[in-house]
TrEMBL record:
GO terms for molecular function: acyltransferase activity, transferring groups other than amino-acyl groups. It holds the Pfam family Acetyltransf_1. This is GNAT superfamily N-acetyltransferase. SUPFAM superfamilies: Acyl-CoA N-acyltransferases (Nat). PROSITE patterns: GNAT. Coiled coil: none annotated. It comes from the Bacteria. The keyword Transmembrane does not apply. Keywords: Acyltransferase, Transferase. Residues 4-148 form the N-acetyltransferase domain.
Length: 148
């Protein structure tokens, strides 16, 4: 199998990206995911939607935030990393991770971060293989309904 073509998504790719995001958020309606995705793109210029393509089919996706924090300086946060279930274990995730690491280096980032659901064991294995370590906990306090 040839390696995926990895690139910044075009507006025409946004619906396909939302189709992948459903796999991470199965309880969230697709229209709400699309609305949130478009809001992020409209309001946050430091967010980059990156896709992995086989031919013209989007098979992998990661949102990327590039920002600065007091404790670490410039960093790249990988958000909503997903590979379509029918294309997992084909090297798509590994190729996408390599692309993101190179992007982080090009952008002068000191580190990469990501969150993963605690029960997503397959992703944990991938992240550990890619050199990620668990440094802490991500605490959440809900302030309202998550379906708005």
């Amino acid at each position: 199998m040839s390696p995926p073509d990895i690139r910044l998504l075009e507006p025409d790719d946004h619906l396909a990206a939302t189709g992948l995001l459903v796999h991470l958020n199965p309880d969230c309606p697709t229209q709400l995911l699309l609305q949130r995705f478009r809001t992020i793109l409209d309001e946050h210029p430091h967010y980059l939607p990156i896709g992995a393509f086989l031919g013209d089919k989007l098979v992998g996706f990661a949102g990327v935030w590039i920002a600065t924090k007091i404790w670490c300086g410039r960093y790249l946060e990988i958000d909503n990393f997903v590979v379509h279930p029918s294309h997992r274990s084909e090297g798509i995730g590994t190729a996408l991770m390599a692309f993101l690491e190179e992007l982080a280096r090009e952008k002068g980032c000191n580190l990469q971060t990501l969150d993963s659901y605690t029960n997503n064991y397959a992703s944990h294995r991938l992240y550990h293989r890619q050199g990620f370590e668990i440094w802490g906990f991500h605490f959440v306090k809900t302030l309202g309904s998550l379906d708005r």
